[in-house]
Amino acid sequence: MLHHTGAIWEAIDAAAGLVAPGGRLWIALYHRTRQSGRSLRTKRLYGSLPRPGKLLFRGAYAAAKIAKSVVVRRRLPALRGAYDTRGMNWWRDIEDWLGGLPYEVSSPGEVLDRLRPKGFQLERLRDAIGESGNDVYLFRRST
Asked: What is the architecture, at CATH level 2, of domain 1-33+105-143?
């Protein structure tokens, strides 16, 4: 959730400050991509709309996601009864993503540059691949 605070670097510093020597810090942050600016503009537009406009916008966004799945994956996405790892159905996940402000992104280099001087060593990194994914980091603080 650090990427939804509106102050990502201060939030990372605060979380890091709670880690004891030898302790671990596990964080997931939105990966900076070429589409990050577009994603932020989309979220801001959605957030500025009245409730009926949000419903129409969400429908258009959902239709575009379905069309993309058909064209790219050559299949319809699983819509009915499909829950993601966070327990949300497909429609709710779209609403959650569109309404997710503040929205901040980072790159692995930025995160490493921020935490290494504080005594953190990277133990594991799962890079996000694709639009709006999370980089998942596991750091250990030196003793």
From this structure: 3-Layer(aba) Sandwich (3.40)
